[in-house]
Amino acid sequence: MAILYPPKFLSTDALFWLKASHELQKTEAKQFDTHHLSKLEVRVKKFDEPTHEALKRLHEALVGLDGVERVSSLFSNDFVETKKGSSDSEMLTVINTGELDTLRLHKLLKERDNDYSNMVEDDYHTFYYFISGENTIDISGLEIPGSYLYDAKNGEIEWPILGSYTLIFLLIMVVVFRLLFRNYVVFFSALMVIGLSTVLTFTLIVMLTGIETMHITMPFITISIALVDFLYFYYRWHVSQYKVNRRNAVIKMLNRSMLPALWTSVITMLGLGSLVFIDSEIIRLLSLSVIISSVTGYMVNLTFLPAMLSYFELEHTHVPYAKIGYFLLHARFTITKRSSLGFWRSPICCLSLEHISSMGRVTLFSNSMCTMNR
Q1: Where are the extended beta strands (E) located within the chain?
Q2: Cα distance between residue 70 and residue 61, in whole Å
Q3: Is 339's pLDDT higher than 60?
Q4: Residue 328 or 164, more confident
Q5: Residue of 81, 83, 104, 84 whose CA lies nearest to 94
Q6: DSSP string, 200-223
Q7: Are strands 147-151 and 213-215 parallel, antiparallel or unpaired?
Q8: Neighbour-count burial for 66-75, b at 16+ CB within 10 Å, e otherwise
Q9: Counting Cβ atoms within 10 Å, is residue 252 exposed (0-12), middle (13-18) or buried (19+)?
Q10: Whole-model pTM above 0.70?
């Protein structure tokens, strides 16, 4: 099913909204040649003649790179300016900005409202180079004055960065589960449950709605929901290994965890399921992913997880930090009759003292008024 109905992920809201644009669909239907547009932002401390020459050489170096079709910057060669003559007739004048010196370039941008003002900030410390080409370019070998920032994503998902974050998340899961449960079965079973729940969730969304484009943040919702249900089931199986055999531990896990996990899933679905009726495609997809991931996560934990755990038997079933949870949940102190009476007496005494003090203030005020009248 996942092969027949694969989803596509986007990383920006802009691309998500544009996917339903009729103008974009018309443009794609004409099958124009596509170009990769990237932006190079260069920051300099001072815009003088040496810096001017260095920025102009950078423009020429960018134009000479392989795969680059066009570079638009303040140092482009030709700039077309519209001028009006004495008879109100318009004339076109071509200005070679690449040959202007620093002073004349300042004057050109200050006196005329033209397109070149979008390629430099007003303080002349930040310059922009818009590069159009077949793909991203390698600028590591170029001599760039000052500091720079090269933006070549265009809303695309940076899979190396996303993969590194995923690897860090997996390592944290291994360490935390190892400290809590002292085995590696919990990590691999959690990984299998999360993977199956996520794949089933987005496959069902594509099958039911026909929407293939998803936001990249939606898988994190399914991961969190599946992980909560997994901890319900696995913890009960883990502690049940202490006094019962492997088969009875699975049965006890199902008996103790099935209803709490079910009600958790139902409450989650009812709480966020109403967002499906909102007139926003992003909100509807988020709500739908919550509903379906609640169902798939519960079913995977109810069927696949017990079948997988039935092949394992643990030696260390003690959970080191469980006593803290029991203490917070079950309250180890006993409320006696005396303590309960003391609990209720405290606010009553405070109210009585406040009432007595207020009466004293009223009496003192009345006596002072009587003295003044005399």
Answers
A1: 8-10, 36-43, 68-72, 79-84, 90-95, 126-133, 147-151, 213-215
A2: 12
A3: no
A4: 164
A5: 81
A6: HHHHHHHHHH---EEETTHHHHHH
A7: unpaired
A8: eebeebbbbb
A9: middle
A10: no
